[in-house]
Amino acid sequence: GSARAVVVAVGDHTLFGSMASAVSEEAVETNFTKGINAVSWVLIRFMLVMVPLVFMINGLTKGDWLQAFLFAISIAVGLTPEMLPMIVTTCLAKGAVSMSKKKTIVKNLNSIQNFGAFDILCTDKTGTLTQDRVVLEYHLNVNGEEDNRVLRHAYLNSYFQTGYKNLMDMAIIQKTEEAEAADPSLVDLSEHYVKVDEIPFDFTRRRLTTVVQDKSGKTQMVTKGAVEEMLGICAFAERDGAVCPLTREVRAQIFQTVEDLNEKGFRVLAIAQKNNPSPVGAFGVKDECDMVLIGYLAFLDPPKESTAAAIQALKDHGVTTKILTGDNDKVARTICKQVGLQVRNMLLGPDLENMSDAALAEAAEETDVFAKLTPDQKARVVSVLREKGHTVGFMGDGINDAAAMKAADIGISVDTAVDVAKESADIILLEKDLMVLEQGIVEGRKTYANMIKYIKMTASSNFGNMFSVLAASALLPFLPMMSVHLILLNLIYDLSCTTIPWDNVDEEYVASPRKWDAGSVGSFMIWLGPTSSIFDFVTYIFMYFVFCPFFVSHGVLFHDLTAHYSGAELLQMQAAYIGMFQAGWFVESMWSQTLVIHMIRTPKLPFLQSHASAPVTLLTLTGITVLTIIPFTPFGAMLGFVALPAAYFLYLIPCILLYMALATSLKKAYVRCYGKLL
Predict the structure, then answer these.
(1) 83: alpha, beta or left, given left = phi > 0 and alpha = psi -120 to 50?
(2) In angstroms, rounded to a whole number, what is the distance separating the alpha carbons of residues 271 and 293?
(3) pLDDT at 611 over 80
């Protein structure tokens, strides 16, 4: 045959085009991205202050501007947590591997930390909280009686529509095929009718129409959709084989029947038809009027067995669950009751139309269920919650969820989702057990804990060292440590931190959402950093006034060497004096930097109430051992170090113990002041 096609919209102006456009937009800046960027800028600001100061002080006091420049560059390197990219990537990859063992695909590594950070989970109902096993339980006429005529019209609508056949369409077709044996009028319906036209589904009308013609030439329009929207286009109802006006009393009876079904957890669609429609031109929305309501379809999609337990587990971990669904409020409320979700307040899609973003944001805080939403409205709810400072996750499985998943900090989908939903998701659950959500949250919070541990402990210890270097540069007649010493110190320290992604995390820490707080990094550096500088200054005093004079220069201080020695002997004595001084501070810096990892990795008492993992403990001790041995080796001599006397360690051990005790005390004071350590 032949046909004439009329194009009414193309590209982004079509419904699916606009949704595809929204999904393909640049991803929103998530909590993880904001946090990493903010922390980086905190470290850059400290660097911009410290590096010029060190350069100017060294240049003015020592007179060697090239050496001052090189030393300032090494300070910049020292302030930088060089292993941060590796630590962050390793933490995220470890989380992804752990989640994969629980049959969860992590498409976006950054989403692991967002998993631990989100405090609101917005979720669609169908297919996520429910089993996504839709069954057509009842096909009722207007009187509430089983009627195969209702099933026949539903089949004509679902079979001949050319759009996406959802689970309800498939349930209708399957039910019709099962009923063929008992009712011959249902056999081979597709052979007895031909399709004439179609008015596709959209989320505003919430209905779909097909126009079919039987072999006798009779044409009828069959419409299936949400009950309220269907009653808006129906003027008549079929009762007891006769067509009667759709009076107020009949409407009240219909609403009561539908409400009873909704309260039992059924999703109800209405079916209407109109014989021999007479369109002007092509069939369109304008022809959906004066139709005859012939009955209802009641579908059941029971909650997943793990849904109630998963929602309670989320609540126990500080995550609020909100339902965002296109279904009506009655069905949504019933499902919430079945899964143990308390409904304090409910908003409907039409209510959102007249609300500003500010008003919606305030209302969304107190609303647990949003029903009868369009895809754009779902995305809007997610966006306003994020603007209120929440980290939001969205879990969905349909085409209408893709935009909301894209707008969220983390998009979660399930194994039965449509392709576009899986494409928009950051994480895909391959099993129907939603308890994996709790496991993901715990894994995300552990990941964040170990990342922020490295950042805070490294930034604070580096800041303390640089602060010590700045003071020493101004007070000492020589550099307290050469540039190569600083770089080697940072290298060995950073290598000893490479096992932090496998460190233990206190159970109390994973009990609530964890978000990036760049300001806390700066305050932590200021609180804990100068603590190490106190003991650095004590080490300076001991090395300069006690150990070096006693073991190197026969009781003569460095600034008096010129009065007692001359020529090559003076140069040799100065080199030995500086070499022992630098070796002493080099070893003390490593001990204090590395052992303090165990002090500030937990707010509890280290070694007693909370202990590091075996890899962390082993590698930190290895780092200390290696660096302590270096001054006694030919390699140490090449670096200008002088072997330290045994008496040095009689000073070092009590010094480090006092430092650890002071760090623990300051840690507790910091927690009292700021409410958290990490």
Answers:
(1) alpha
(2) 6
(3) yes
